[in-house]
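lol forgot to send this yesterday, sorry. struct tokens for the thing we talked abt
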């Protein structure tokens, strides 16, 4: 049976993307509405990662299910990294994307270098307190005029030099290959996959240990021994050390990947 994760967003595009990428892990991604929740988490963090975690933790607490949150935005060097976490509200909440882009172009006019990058952070919170994070960037420059009609937000003014195109001039597939969001989604899927496989292995180990304990004959001597403290420590680290590296391990033969995981 697949495990249910709630994605803390009301954006159907984000839901579809996350569903697609996590379906390969046997994970079911549901919207807050599907579990009877309206998400309204204030983005009070100073970083994208903080905001993503705020959303994930709030929804996890409210639903009792593992929850995923994300946050992204545009950082422009000559604006000291702005609009950054205020990307969605730059110039006020009521103005259109077009007006926001015009304002951005005016702000960087005559300032020399126009280097910028998009950032996307994804966080996941589990009911047992475990958390996972992934964060990726995409470097580019702010164009002189808006170009292209695809995408959303700052896409028409974000030029990606290796392709000599703005994000708005790319197909969704082309953008996803190089974008902060596409890269963060893939990194997150990898991190989550590793976490789930380690967790499954630990559960198997615990089950095996329970079965062995139950199957052990109970003579007066073993009953007495059972009440004594075992010689080996039962910390997760000690159990992991004793774990045999057999081909039954889901990661057997695979190179261990570096990943961020916080407890
Ligand atoms: P959020 O991650 O949905 O909160 O996005 C915050 C804001 O960052 C959006 O409203 C956009 O203005 C901007 N943004 C984030 N990612 C992109 C992108 O891929 N293209 C254009 N704008 C983006």
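and heres what i got for the seq, position by position
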């Amino acid at each position: 049976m697949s495990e249910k994760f709630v994605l803390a967003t009301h954006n159907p595009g984000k839901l579809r993307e996350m569903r697609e990428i996590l379906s390969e892990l046997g994970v079911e991604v549901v919207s807050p509405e599907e579990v009877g929740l309206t998400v309204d988490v204030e983005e009070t963090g100073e970083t994208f990662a903080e905001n993503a975690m705020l959303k994930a933790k709030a929804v996890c607490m409210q639903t009792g299910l593992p929850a995923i949150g994300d946050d992204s935005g545009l950082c422009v060097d000559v604006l000291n990294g702005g609009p950054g976490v205020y990307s969605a509200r730059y110039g006020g909440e009521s103005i259109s994307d077009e007006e926001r882009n015009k304002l951005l172009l005016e702000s960087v006019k005559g300032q020399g270098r126009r280097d910028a990058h998009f950032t996307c952070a994804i966080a996941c919170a589990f009911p047992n307190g475990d958390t996972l994070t992934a964060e990726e960037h995409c470097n580019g420059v702010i164009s002189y005029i808006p170009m292209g009609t695809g995408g959303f937000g700052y896409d028409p003014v974000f030029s990606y030099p290796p392709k000599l195109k703005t994000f708005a001039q790319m197909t969704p597939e082309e953008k996803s290959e190089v974008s902060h969001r596409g890269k963060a989604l893939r990194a997150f899927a990898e991190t989550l996959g590793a976490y789930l496989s380690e967790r499954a292995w630990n559960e198997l180990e615990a089950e095996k240990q329970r079965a062995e304990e139950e199957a052990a004959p109970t003579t007066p001597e073993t009953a007495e021994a059972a009440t004594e403290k075992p010689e080996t420590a039962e910390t997760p680290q000690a159990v992991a050390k004793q774990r045999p590296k057999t081909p039954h391990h889901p990661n057997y033969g695979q190179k261990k990947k570096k990943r961020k995981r916080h407890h």
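The chain is about 35% helix and 20% strand. anyway ping me if u want another try
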